[in-house]
Amino acid sequence: MLPLGSIVNALAIIGGSVLGCWLQSRFPERIRTIVFQGLGLSVLLIGIQMALKTENTILVVFAILLGGITGELLRLDTLFERLGNRFKKLIRSKNARFTEGLITASLVYCIGAMAIIGPLEEGIRGDTTVLFTKSILDGFASIAFAASYGSGVLFSFIPVLLYEATLTLGANFFQQYFSDMMIAQITGCGGLLIIGIGINLLELTEIRMANLLPGLVYIVVLTAIFG
Q1: d(CA 23, CA 144)
Q2: How many Å from the N-terminal Cα to the C-terminal Cα in the chain?
Q3: 130 neighbors 117 (Cβ within 8 angstroms)
Q4: Ranges of the chain with pLDDT below 50
Q5: Which one, of 164, 157, 25, lies nearest residue 101 by Cα?
Q6: CB of 60 within 8 A of CB of 218?
């Protein structure tokens, strides 16, 4: 089965990123600054909307705390930074924010209900509507992200394609685990992470988002046990 929705989503990210990179070189510094701030506020809004969809707040709190401790012990931020820098070196990019853009965009595009429901819908029913809709949203988001971060955003299509294609091809297997409750909890937990990304974009403080990622694993386990 060809994961058409995932491929279209990846192409939309590539197209939006190319346009964003082209615009970036033509923006004066003050325009890039206001775009960055506007993007941060927009990401905060998206994160808040997602976080409010959680059905059991206590489980989300425990998942984030346990995830943060696990991430710090494993030093995931350092690991992701090294991987991003190796990829940056491989393609010979000189963009100072390459790795940051790659990780930030990947998190935003891979977290959320549409990133789960879309591939499952295509894999089980052959319906690409959700993923095509997500592609439009991600394409426009990529313009803003790439205008702020540069070329690293373009390569976020790789983890997005791998993630969504895996869910699509394994839809029959994964379907049994993604109940409405589970999707709501993952979306809520992911929303908190996206709020953190918004805070980082606005430079209010520095949150090591990569180290909080295990929270998404913990929310699945905790919801399966206590949900």
Answers
A1: 9
A2: 33
A3: yes
A4: none
A5: 157
A6: no
Long-range pairs for 219-222: beta carbons < 8 A, 24 or more residues apart: 219/59, 219/60, 219/63, 219/185, 219/186, 219/188, 219/189, 220/177, 220/182, 220/185, 220/186, 222/59, 222/62, 222/63
Cβ burial, residue 225 (10 Å; 0-12/13-18/19+): exposed
24 residue type, one letter: Q
pLDDT of residue 3: 93
- Alpha-carbon gap, residue 190 to 198, rounded angstroms: 13
Quick one: which of 32, 64, 34 has its CA closest to 47?
A: 64
The one-letter amino acid at 194: I
**Distance separating alpha carbons of residues 92 and 54, to the nearest angstrom:** 42
The token duo for 29 is: 């510094």
